[in-house]
Amino acid sequence: MKIVNVFVCIFLALFLISCEKEISFSGERGNSVLVLNGILTADSVVRVHLSESRFFLDNDEFKTVDDAVVRLWKNGFEVETLDFLDNGWYESDFIAGEGDSLMIDVLYDGHDVRAETVIVKPVQVLGIDTVSFSAKWSDDVMYYSPADDKSDDDVLGVTSLHLNFDLDLVFDEPADEKNFYDVRLYVKFFYYGYSIHYPLPYILDDPVLNMQISGEDDTNYGSYSHLFNDELINGKQYSVNLKLEDYYCLLSPFYLEKGDPVSACLYVELVSLTEPYYLFGETSQSALGMEDGFAGMVSEPVRIYSNVDGGIGLLGSYGVSSANIFIPRP
Question: Which residues are CB-contacts of 293 (< 8 A; sequence separation ≥ 6)?
């Protein structure tokens, strides 16, 4: 039976390869539309980016929009016109607050584009329960000459942090409201008054939430992001299990020399998202997953979510609550 299956797979592969044929596009080229993107958060200015879409067969760079009128509205009242910065970026003087209902209205070359969002209030993290945690510092050697031409002059001392952990992130999920989440981890290294932000991949090991999470891991160590909602955990105190095994964080010798004083802190963030931001991320991940493999050859393309009226793009918001573990160097 196994031999038969092997021959069936070989036949299908040869069939698909032999049927490949390049067909020139004979349809009409659509007009470009305005693309509005902005990810907002509380206690920060409102910053959005404008560009024009391009035909899917074109290889040109996206054209930024530098002379639009971009207006900000709060709770139905106009607040201000955003200032143009550069390369399609516009920014307000207004500082957003939790619960603000905001709208961006754009006038450009006959386009009238608008999008709305509410500045989300983050769900608070109660703490981290440590199942196991190991963080080992070491000083290693790195050569920056070819392997066959090493000398003592080509050696740099590299400080590294070897991480293994199994953690539970604990939070109270609010009842009677829809909530959308991501979890992000990073290590921040501190030395001589400076810091380095080091994002971490991880495995989210949860039999309930894993039913919502699709796609393959970004790396052999897991993914940098896992989107989920509260459909199955609404109103509960919940623990999300996070794992990372045998992962090395290397500090560049151009910033840090062997023996320099350094400490670190592991941050675990529960990121609350607006529903459009969640749907945009979910459909984007699905679209990327369809680009490779057999599924992408036989399935309909995934339409990436947009909440922009008169154009495409995303206006969303997020809020962050976090807990941390300090990692001193002995």
Answer: none
Does the reported pTM lie above 0.90? Answer: no
Look at residues 118, 152, 171 and tell me which one is the last residue of a structural domain.
118
Please give the Cα distance from 116 to 110 (Å, whole number): 20
Give 33-70 pLDDT, tens digit per residue. Answer: 899 999 999 999 999 999 998 755 456 677 899 999 99
The H or E element spanning position 14 is helix 2-18
Domain span at 43: 34-118
**CATH (domain of 84):** 2.60.40
Question: Final residue of a domain: which of 83, 118, 153?
Answer: 118
183 neighbors 268 (Cβ within 8 angstroms): yes
Rounded (5°) CA angle 211-215-221: 100
Residues 6+ apart with CB under 8 A from 151: 145
User: Which residues, 6 or more positions from 23, have their beta carbon under 8 angstroms from its beta carbon?
Assistant: none
Written as six digits, the tokens of 238 are 């919940």
* CA 186/CA 201 separation, integer angstroms: 8
Element (H, E) at 58: none
Give the H/E segment covering residue 277. Answer: helix 275-290
Q: How many CA atoms lie within 13 A of 65 on its CB side?
A: 24
The predicted-structure confidence for 238-249, as pLDDT tens digits, reads as follows: 999 999 999 998
**What is the CA angle 295-297-303, rounded to 5?**
75
Smallest CA-to-CA distance from 304 within 289, 294, 317 is with 289
Residue 157 resides in a domain: yes
| Coil vs helix vs strand at 312 | strand
